[in-house]
Fold each of these.
Amino acid sequence: MRESISFSWRLAALCLAAFMAGPAQAAEAEQRAEGQTKITEETPYVQSPKIVVDTMLEMAGVHAGDFLVDLGSGDGRIIINAAKERKARGFGVDYDPRLVKLANDNARKAGVADRASFFEQNIFQTDLGSATVVTMYLLPEYNAVLKPTLLALRPGTRIVSHDYGIDDWEPDASRKIPVPEKKVGFEKASLILSWIVPAKVAGHWRSSIRTGAGLVELDLMLTQRYQHFEGKAMLRGQEVAVERPFLKGDYLSFRIQDGKDTLLFNGRVSNSRIQGQTIRGEERTRWRALRTEVLKAG
């Protein structure tokens, strides 16, 4: 894992971020890049202590069915530990061919080369589609550039980062652990941050609920910012609030009031469909909703 990265990769990230941001930001990034052309030596590789590795794997809930991708994999310790101690599989990528060779050698020595492999590759060009867990120890500007790619992963994919956040995406959990032997920074501690990729729920949803009088139409208008959503509902021709909204991966739940009754909805989101159940008192009925209009998440 890396605390910092070579100039060529830093320059690539700045240029990519500038391209995505626009002309004004591009000019600023160009000036920053020009200032960095004076840097000639490669910045150091910093090993993550075992307690950091263990905490990252624990917070991600890594198990035998998982497939990990480690961005900036260094000597391979994240993937190797996941394979050896938790029976998971995965691969790591790093720009330094010497570290890639070292990581593959370490995997063979640990007896997990069949489940852990490493490649010399650009992190921004790495296919993360097979990942159930993504781990990384990258600088903040790299995480910011990776944010759209990470948010586009399958809902429920877990992401864990050592020390640095992902732009303005609030983590689902964080933990600070003492690391007396830490060689970077003033504080002898590491911050471990984790996220669960949320399903995209923003939009106009149409549904119906079963009552004693038959089916009643229910319309939902939901807005979203990362793993948080809110909205309103139209029920029996009246607007009611969506209460206690909760979203974790592809699972969502919320409540609405139907007169004196509280209706609890929960279900799984798959593309433009939600399937689950409605709970009214002791009564449980199947429920589904279809999205008729997609809104851009905030």
Amino acid sequence: MPIYDSIGQSYSKFRLPDPRIVDSLVNLLQLEQGSLVADIGAGTGNYSRAIAERGYFLHAVEPSLVMRTQATEHPQVQWFTGYAEDSPLPTSSVDAVISILATHHFSNFEKAVIEMNRIAKTGAIVFLTFDPRVGERLWIADYFPSIWEDAFRVFPPLSDVVALIQSNTQRIVEITSLMLPHDLTDMFFAAGWRRPELYLNPDVRSSISALALAEVSIVEKGVNRLEEDLNSGCWDAKYGKIRSLPEIDAGYRFLCARVA
């Protein structure tokens, strides 16, 4: 059973597409309006709809029924039930491919990359992913240390990811940093870096897979300590200087694979 069948019930409320991420995706795709893009691991279709609003057509591929049923219909988005490793889309049927913060849920990333290359024509394959090794260590690591450490296991080094993509697609991969603004609308793991109070909300936590899938006692321990430190002023005394920062490099990267 796809994991989001069990943890994705509130996903559509807190994982809203951030327009700055959408801008970056459109710039990286470099496609004419009216082009067809596959969104692999589309979730509730938040970015599929946002890109469709920019004048593109989307094939949204998602295995989770819970996620798909939360999707808002859009005339330029067509839904398909399927996995990244076994796409229902025909060979060379789309102009480009995107996959937004989904690769860590794939059962076999190499097979998924081969499938994405199969369904794409000569347009870009764009991933948004995370590598905790390349970004700034966040205060979140101090409250959820085991979950932070798990990220090093779940997300391989970017150099390994790039090498795997290039060897399986004969494409050239360009890496672009995603600086996280302080007011992101897409509440993924590090999105609340300047808004620690958000992590006290159980509905927000349920839309972040790293927290939703972790052992309940570990999450509760971190949340309780965070709440105590926020109430006492300890958090602001130790980390409060980041509240004045407009953005931060937390290790999120776009990988854009293009035909040489």
Amino acid sequence: MTEVVFITRALPHYRVKFHERVKQLLAEHGVTYRLCYSGSALTEQSKKDETALNWAEKIPIRYFGSSEHSLLFQSIGGMVSRADFVIIGQHNKHLHNYPLILRSRLLGRPKVAFFGHGRGFQADDPNGLSERFKRFWASKVDWWFAYTPEGARAVSRSGFPEERITVFNNAIDTSDITRTLAGISEDEVAELRMSLVGGSGNVGVYVGGIYRHKRIPFLIEAAQRIRERLPDFHLLVIGGGPDAHLVEAAAAEHDWIHALGPRFGRDKALLVRLARVFLMPGLVGLAVLDAFAYGTPMVTTALPYHSPEIEYLRHDENGWIVDDADSPEAYAAAVTHLLTDEALRSKLAAAGADDAKVYTIENMAQRFAQGVLMALREG
């Protein structure tokens, strides 16, 4: 039986359904899908967003260093010895990638694919040594799975054949969010609204990891300016990370800022239902799909280092992008505008809801599985 192995460093909650669906789709074609993971470094575990699967295989990992940029090596030898196709993350710091790619090129098996962004969206210098190194190795694999069309274009520019690139449109389980929201009553929302935010309708929410690129100080300063314009404004912050202490300090000082920590499932959905806008002035990634699915238009800024999923956000169509990325005042003005213009806010929310039906785990898994089968068929 043909065997495909997916190697990932960590297994976050939002990836579980994707892997389960891919496993099912490939099994229908007689392909065994094995998922191998290790775990995040201690510096990242504060996000509290990892889980496990009873059929996934946990493998040893070694970190070299104690920062988020540490080199690492996963013991994948035993996992790939009989594999026909191995899929690995495109990360310079993953030292186990290089022996695997060299083995594949020398022996002709297993086939190897990269799964990733295609380029460093947060790179300080697009032409720096790190990015040149990434481009060199990008063309040394047999197949590519790119998060978005822009990622595919970046891979193609590195000299990789377009016909061997699968764009899977990275997603979260938006359909699950929709089902969860349908099971929440208006009475529940009203009760929580009264108890948590004093009945206010002017509520903004932040959902995601809390770290430097998310610009939490900017968010807090902008929130204070929104509060000056709208005296009943409340900010809900859902998530965890190394900068969570900044949110906790702000919440201790202002009773209208709520540090809620990591939340999942129905608990998270009920909290987000209180909000009318989704605030993310820093790096935007998959959270844009949360915003679409929850019906809370995202307001972000025109930063140069957003993740690939920023492609899904279209200014004044399904969200809002503030041009002046360095101005909390401009950001506060945009958020206030949306909170006081219900026709505009509703238009953005409706368009986002339509897009949430496009960028789904089901569609992502289908595209990915089709790419796997195409790669296996290639000589």
Amino acid sequence: MSEFICPFSGCQMELSILQVMHFRASHDCDPSEWVAETYGSELQEKYDSGVGSYAIASEYEWLTPDMVCDVVDTRSQESSLRGNNNPMKRSEVAEQFCGESNPAKREDVREKISNAVSGFTHTQKAKEKISRKNTGNELGERARKKISAAVSERDTSYMQTDEYSESLSEALTGREPTYPTPYDVDGLSHSVRSSWEEKIAIQLTENDVQYVYEKEFELSVGSYYADFVVGEFVIEIKGFANERSVKKATAFIDEYADWTYVVVGDQIPCDVHIPWEQHEDLMEVICDG
């Protein structure tokens, strides 16, 4: 790192990264305090005129951008965004982001980016790592048993009442359904429509559980394609409930009473509900059922 002479009047000490220690030991002051007292108005004038902290610091070999920000009044967030020192207000910067010179606006570049990300999916190992990072530590065996017991003892009879269905339908009015694009996963014989479906499919496969994916059931309200069918269990992976899904769930329970309707994720009318955080309890439900 290049050295410089201490700017304190009368001091000829060569300094580098130890300027803070030098100022405190030799001049009994903090460098930012000395800069504020000696050059404060000068730096403030430059900053107010639209010169950024890095540009100001480059004019003084002994000054850093952080020290500039310590000295000048950076004003409110709104002023910083609307003021002249906002880089996006400079015509050349705005042109780089918004104008035709932005490479991302070129057709060949957009096509190259699209081709690069098309069909991309994380490996299972990467997804598990991301999941652990986002959700924290995994549950211990003792905690899992407590959760499993709570799930098995939960009274869900209220979910079969008309009052519940009507209130839930009213609450979900206006939430339109979405239809994700299916994608392939290594090790699975079928495509899936979400990371949750992928996780459940892998969970069933690793436990040697035979299942049918998206089996069609005819309902009075239209066709219904179950996410997974295992024996007498129909398993619905519900990431986002809406009025349409409530109607189909209610119709399925009424019209296919011999089947056990299991919902993993968001809550809708069902025989067994498992919150997504407890999705690994699905194996206990279908194996003990």
